[in-house]
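Q: Could you fold this chain for me?
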Amino acid sequence: MSNNTSSEYEILYVDSTDKLQQLCLSIKDAPILILDTEFVREKTYRAKLCLLQIATDDIVACVDPIAISDINPLIDLINDHSKLKVLHAARQDYEIFYDLTRQLPQPLFDTQLAASLLGYGEQVGYGSLVGKVLGIQLDKAHTRTDWSKRPLSEAQIKYASDDVIYLRQLYPLLTQQLKEKGREDWLNEEFDSLCQKELYVTKLDEAWQRVKGINRLRPRQLAAAKNLSHWREEMAIKKDLPRRWIISDDILLAIAQLLPKNKSQLESIANIKKAFIDKSGDTVLNCVKKALELDDASLPSVKKPKRLTAEQEIVADLLLVQLKIIANHQNISVSNIANRKMLEKFINGETDITLLKGWRYQLAGKKIQDLYNNKFALHIKNNKVIEIKI
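A: Sure. Below is the predicted structure, expressed as structure tokens.
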């Protein structure tokens, strides 16, 4: 496939129901859909879809969901399990698709994940990947565009369409490279995990886990933080506002640490606004009150990792050396396989870790186990680390 530039394609701008119907008819038999989205979420809880780019072998289109009240006919095609969906860094796009229909497009091929297993770097950006594989430098002029504003200029539409035009060219090249390296099956479990609905379901009882610094709290303070986080998440969803607009992490943590019993104590917290206290003070104090009323046995706790001994730290260093050897041999990033924290969990006897599952186990986990269990040793020879069977 030649590396065509975006100027060689006719880009369809779909901004009416009639145009959408025509597009759906044109792509209904396409086996592969190349997808991308443009959205805004700075002022909302959920991302607002502003543009949906789609490409097949014959068509490149930008669909305007702001101009079209119902894009479900297109979403139904995207959700068709007989069509492969190709995206780059699909996680945020999939959040949007899930919010639209409570469904996730399957099957999936994520070029960012594929690129990471081909030595292009971990979480490589789309523009960087296009440059490395296709030798094309993408225009960055509209990187910070507010996609919710209308009308969109021709330059903006061209910029947005580039995200599927070159993605269409990347896909066959990456799949061929995966085949040549025998890594086609490595990604299946990664793609499947991205298509699990549990990733995109809001769990109010787990909202506290997003709060930075939560592990510094004592059990009763943590109970208050959990209550406050649950309430904040509910309000953010109800009002469709960023959770930090309801209450920031810093203020939430300060309230949990102080455990105020009245508004006077609440007012003593630095940077807390009177308007917030007037509006939500009673609710906040009630969250704290419920935490204060819990008996000790019912208090939550943050699971802290078991610290390694000095000797175990050295063992972790050695295992990390083995990981680096494997990663270097495979020309991929070490972090694609595992990181030091995961090795620490392994040393502490944890088995529910990705290093011991799927392709990571076949590639590196088994060898890490063998080294740990003294089945071979590492030796330096001619400035290289080699393995010696024991």
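A (continued): The mean pLDDT is 94.
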